[in-house]
From TrEMBL:
It comes from Solidesulfovibrio magneticus (strain ATCC 700980 / DSM 13731 / RS-1) (Desulfovibrio magneticus). This is Phenylacetate-coenzyme A ligase. Pathway: Aromatic compound metabolism; phenylacetate degradation. It catalyses: 2-phenylacetate + ATP + CoA = phenylacetyl-CoA + AMP + diphosphate. PANTHER family: BLR5969 PROTEIN.
Length: 433
């Protein structure tokens, strides 16, 4: 096993021993903040009472609302003068969630990100183009500093401006990129417009994340670009990118357990679920000194993958995200995640790169309509053929989500496009639009 650092090769007993020591220190550090001093006292919880990982369930949870209520600096565990950077959530309404970092925190984050990149095969000889937004969003700077830490020639392209992205990819012989999956599919259409095939470039590795997407969408992306695309998981409350990452096996994302304590709980009860069972991911920082975050309820639904990864790393793997607790749709009494719909659509060769889920209300009944872009060669004038395709898509979706949606077939590039995260769900139930 070729590793970036020694922590990557820790055994399960070594990880457990390391985690309890770092958890105790993180709890003591967190207790220095106004928020956790109050939260622990209200819960009657003494950080000194934690002696093993079995005690974790007694520690109070932290929620996104807690971070908002502590805005702007109620969760700081060190003086404001020790902080060198802050990041904030990308939401446009309400109070943002703010995370602060000391220089030590940033250095460790960069090392974790470099570890991720090394694991998938990037080396200091690579040219890396970061096609993610910079600024308050953590994805841009998090990946950027990891790439520089690894020693790559790093191009801070930022988001958008697709023609410039393609020029940079071509002129500088880029071999690795960081890109949002929906934008990667969109960018391919720009390649086609200007008559270039990205498979002719030296590009070989893509780091993808920032939004949920399916295995079928990953397969399509890899085919279109002739590359390997590796899933990543991160959230600003835990630093940003680099929390968990796929290895070259592409079978689950390794959580760096020397830096984070991960749990999977029942979102309704907060109790642990059985190994391999789907639940809500709960995360604790194990080394951040400026603003520790303890037992944070991410609202992301996933599971621990059982067994040892063939790559040899003992850090536990989480499955790709199955959606969010708060993204779940309830239609006619059935729980539906948008990812289920994408999984079906991306497995069908007739379907193009984009789709949209529209929620509508007919009287007191909620309905779901799926608008699907069809590839040019299948968008024919024969209405019988289109009707048959429409019925086939509806039937496959019904088999997956247990509700029969209305399916609307549309031409390529007719749905709204974005160079950022795709907006897949349009809820018209309240507006009546």
């Amino acid at each position: 096993m070729d590793c970036y650092d020694a922590a990557e090769a820790l055994s399960r007993p070594e990880i457990a021993q390391l985690q309890i020591g770092r958890l105790r220190r993180s709890l003591a550090q967190a207790a220095k903040s106004p928020f956790y001093a109050r939260r622990f006292a209200e819960a009657g919880f003494d950080p000194e009472s934690v002696h093993s990982l079995d005690d974790v369930g007694r520690i109070p949870f932290t929620t996104k609302q807690d971070l908002r209520d502590s805005y702007p600096d109620g969760m700081l565990a060190l003086p404001h003068s020790e902080m060198v950077r802050m990041h904030a959530s990308s939401g446009t309404t309400g109070t943002p969630t703010v995370i602060y970092h000391t220089q030590k925190d940033l250095d460790w984050w960069a090392s974790l990100m470099a570890r991720c990149m090394y694991m998938v095969g990037l080396r200091r000889t690579d040219v890396f183009q970061n096609m993610s937004g910079y600024g308050l969003f953590t994805g841009g700077l998090g990946i950027h500093y990891g790439a520089e830490k690894l020693g790559c020639l790093t191009i801070p392209a930022g988001a958008g401006n697709s023609h410039r992205q393609i020029k940079l990819l071509t002129d500088f012989k880029v071999t690795g990129i960081h890109i949002i999956p929906s934008y990667a599919l969109y960018l391919h259409s720009i390649f086609a417009e200007i008559g270039l095939d990205p498979r002719d470039l030296p590009l070989r590795i893509a780091l993808v994340g920032a939004e949920p997407y399916t295995e079928e969408a990953r397969g399509r992306l890899q085919e279109l670009y002739g590359i390997k695309a590796y899933n990543s998981y991160g959230l600003s409350e835990m630093n940003g990118p680099g929390v968990a990452f796929e290895c070259q096996e592409q079978n689950g994302m390794h959580v760096w357990e020397d830096a984070y304590l991960a749990e999977i709980v029942d979102p309704a009860t907060g109790e642990p679920v059985a190994e391999g069972e789907l639940g809500e991911l709960v995360m604790t920082t194990l080394g951040r000194e400026g603003m520790p975050v303890i037992r944070y309820r991410t609202r992301d639904m996933t599971r621990f993958l059982p067994g040892q990864c063939p790559c040899g790393r003992a850090h536990r793997r989480i499955d790709r995200l199955h959606g969010r607790c708060d993204d779940m749709l309830i239609i006619k009494g059935v729980n539906i995640f948008p990812m289920q719909i994408e999984r079906v659509l991306m497995a069908m060769p007739e379907v193009g790169q984009d789709y949209q889920i529209v929620l509508e209300r007919d009287g007191y009944i909620d309905n779901i309509r799926v608008r699907v872009e069809i590839r040019d060669e299948f968008f024919v004038e024969d209405m019988r053929q289109l009707g048959a395709l429409q019925k086939r898509i509806a039937a496959r979706l019904r088999d997956e989500i247990l509700v029969t949606p209305k399916v609307e077939l549309v031409e390529r590039n007719s749905l709204p496009k974005t160079e950022g995260k795709a907006s897949r769900v349009v809820d018209k139930r309240e507006s009546g639009a």
